[in-house]
Structures are given as C-alpha cells and as structure tokens.
Amino acid sequence: MRPSGNHPSASIDNWPSSDLIGSDRSGLPRAGEQGDVDAVLAVLQHVLDPEVPVVSVVELGIVRDIDWLDERLVVNVTPTYSGCPATEVIEQHILEALVAAGYADPLIQRRLSPAWTTDWLTDVGREKLRSYGIAPPVGSASKRSLTGQSDPVVPCPLCGSEATERVSEFGSTACKALYRCRDCLEPFDYFKCL
Amino acid sequence: MQNMAQKNIAQTTQTPLTDCLLRLGDNALVLGQRHAQLCGKAPALEEELALMNVGLDLFGQARNWLGYAAELMAAERATDKVDADQLAFRRDAQDFRNLLLVEQPNGDFADIIGRQFLFDAWHVHLLDGLAHSSDPRIAEVAAKSLKEATYHLRRSSEWVIRLGDGTEESHTRMQRALNNLWQFTGELLQADEIDQAMLAAGIAPDLQTVATRWKATVEEVLEEATLERPSYDAWMYTGGKVGHHTEHLGFLLAEMQYLPRAYPDATVW
C-alpha cells in the first residue's frame, strides 16, 4: 500500500521541496514492496551533509533520482566535487538510513552527469545554510561566464551587511570560499556558486 | 614474478583510448600529489586551504579518469585485477603518461603558481572540448572537471597577476618561474599519433584549437601581470606523454607509492 500517488520514479524537477518531513510515513514500503518516492525522500530528508550538518542531502540537491529496479530501491546520488571526501560517507549514511527504514538491500549509485550545480540547492537549504553561518551561493551558476567575472556581493550571514570581501578562493572545504565582513569584522564561509 | 606481473599493468595497454585516459588521469594525479607535498608548508593558512582543495579536486578527477582506464584494461585482459588504485600505486615512472610540466618540483610560491597557471589555462580548454566527446563517459567526467578547473584557473590567474604586478621581488620571482617552466609547455600543444587518433574518433578535441585558446589566455594574463612572455619558438623538452620523464617523477612516485608497495595486501590503512 502506497501513501500517495503512483509514480514509481521522479526527476528532481518535479519533486516537492518543502513539507517533506511532515509527509505521512504510515505506508512506508517494506522489503520487496514497491514504494513511493515521497516516502524515500522523507527518509533521506534526515540524512545530513556531514560537513554542513544542518542541510539534508535532499536540500543539497545531490539526490538525483529514485527508482525501483524490479523490487530493489535504487537511489542515484551525484558528488558535489570530483574529490569531495564526504562522497563515500554520504552514500554510506543514505544506505544506513534506508536500511533502518526497512528497505531491503537498497542500491546507491553514483551519477556524474549532469554535473552538480549549486542551482539545485533548495530554498530551504539556502536558508538553513545562512542561519548556520554559511553564506549561500549568490546568483545562478548557469549564468556565469567561464572566467573573468567579477565577484558577486555576498551578504554577511551574521549581520547582513553587504560590505564583505573575499579572503581566499577556498575555505574549510572545496565547496566554500573564505570571506570577511568589514562591518561586524567576522570571517565567514561562502558556499561557492558552481 | 610479481614485479613482472605488475609491470604488465601498463606495458600491454597501448590502445589509444586507454593511453588518452592515462594521460588525463596521470596529469591530475601527479599535480595533485605535488599539492599534497605542500600540506603544512604553505606560506599562509588561506593558501594552505586553497592548495589542498585544488589538489583534492585533482585527485578526484584522477580517480574518475583512471577508474575508466582500469575498466577498459580489465576488459581487454579479461581480468578484474586492475583498478584505479593499482594504476596509481603500482606503475613505474616510464608507465606514467603525464606532462613534464606537472611533475616539476614545488620550488617557491611563484614556481607553484606558475606551474598551476600554465596547466590550468590548458586544462580548461582541453576539458571544454572533452565535454563534447563522442564517448559519453569522457564527456561527463570532463563536464564535471571543467567546473573545478575553471575555478582553479581563476585563482592561479589572479596570483600570477598579483605576483607579476606586485613588488620588485615578486615580479622577479614570477618571471623567473615562468622562464623556467616555459620549456615544458611544448608538449601541451603538439598533437602526436594518439591525439590524432582521438581527434579522428571524435573523442578528444583538436589540440591546435586548444593551443590557440591556451595562447590567448596566457597572453592576456601575462600582459596584465606585466610579465614577459617567453618565445613560442623556444626549445622545448618533450616526452612525458610517451613515458619519458624528468628525474623528478621518480622521487615523487617513490614517496607516493611507498606504503601500498610495502604492504601490498593491506586493505585498511
């Protein structure tokens, strides 16, 4: 029995990006039973990025596809960066969460194409980043030119001032750059637009 | 016997596609390892983070390219004994296909930035072409890598400009690094039979096109950096693409490969 709808698979474009946590989980699929994408999403909504532990893998936009191969659940995940050391950890956490939720032997597949972009960060994810002290990406990655573009104005996530400056192209992880606020004088991470 | 078996990993793999993948993977791996050698030694904390993150991107790219190469090699030989780690840690210097440029020693910060800039300016245009490869696997790895390489080029360009158009000393050092590294740039732009085979198959772009774009990028940045561009007709060292390396690669591999070679059966480090 499925909680709602009858779509066996879904692309990210038509996924709900809000009220995932609150969705009805009573009809959660069990081993051998084809389930519903929303129920899987509800489970994945609790799997957090180990390096930014306030944003879920769904909000980060790295869960690209959910499908069933015969009776087996298949989740496609895309890495943020080629060398992101969290990739394996995230895949392991997704696997553990799904097994704990009763899915038998789910298959986690890594998918490179299309390459991840920060445009896939959900609005909820961006707000969570900001309240965690990390400035979310400014603007759209698809609209940037190859080189020579000027830096965007990155508002300080702590005081909101736009008087900020870039200290380094890279911050504590590959996906972030290091900024400084000239008003409140605090340094902060900026989640780079990619 | 084991040594012979290990050597065969690369020696019998001369299909043009595998060689092309080894070149891509080895460039990323060797330059990534140069970055890893700087861990704890960068001139400032911010640069430490930047160098390590660039290196990490390159290692990730190396894994994607070498992983594909290993799959092709395993299929050719009907074995499952070849993987990306084996290619990284069990080949000798003459089996590596990286450019001479990326194996050059770290030297001072101008050497590090100069090497990175000359490579990035080429890498970006090459990956841009590979992203339209007739081989879908290559196209997707290239599209992913291109995003990272673009960011790398932005950083290395900014540093070349800052150092070149900086103090008298930074200018002198940046110019010296450029003059020294220039002799290794010839093989970036010259197509050999493997490059030509890849072009004919629609797998890789025309190196002539990459060369034209590389020159435009280099000229633009060097001009802004008030640096003098060495001559394109200067004498050039070549050979990295076919396994003839400078002495520096052997030392780098000895350090990088020591652990997996000393404990070949270990599964957890």
TrEMBL record, chain A:
InterPro entries: Fe-S_Maturation_MIP18, FSCA_dom_sf, MIP18-like, PaaD-like, Zn_ribbon_PaaD. SUPFAM superfamilies: Fe-S cluster assembly (FSCA) domain-like. It comes from the Bacteria. Residues 145-192 form the PaaD zinc beta ribbon domain. Gene3D superfamilies: Fe-S cluster assembly (FSCA). Residues 38-99 form the MIP18 family-like domain. NCBIfam families: PA_CoA_Oxy4. This is Phenylacetate-CoA oxygenase subunit PaaJ.
TrEMBL record, chain B:
Its EC number is 1.14.13.149. One of its GO terms (molecular function) is phenylacetyl-CoA 1,2-epoxidase activity. The keyword Oxidoreductase applies. Gene3D superfamilies: 1.20.1260.10. Signal peptide: none annotated. InterPro entries: Aromatic_CoA_ox/epox, Ferritin-like, Ferritin-like_SF, PaaA_PaaC, PaaC. The keyword Oxidoreductase applies. Keywords: Oxidoreductase. PANTHER family: 1,2-PHENYLACETYL-COA EPOXIDASE, SUBUNIT C (PTHR30458:SF0), PHENYLACETIC ACID DEGRADATION PROTEIN PAA (PTHR30458). This is Phenylacetate-CoA oxygenase subunit PaaC. It comes from Halomonas llamarensis. The lineage of its organism: Bacteria, Pseudomonadati, Pseudomonadota, Gammaproteobacteria, Oceanospirillales.
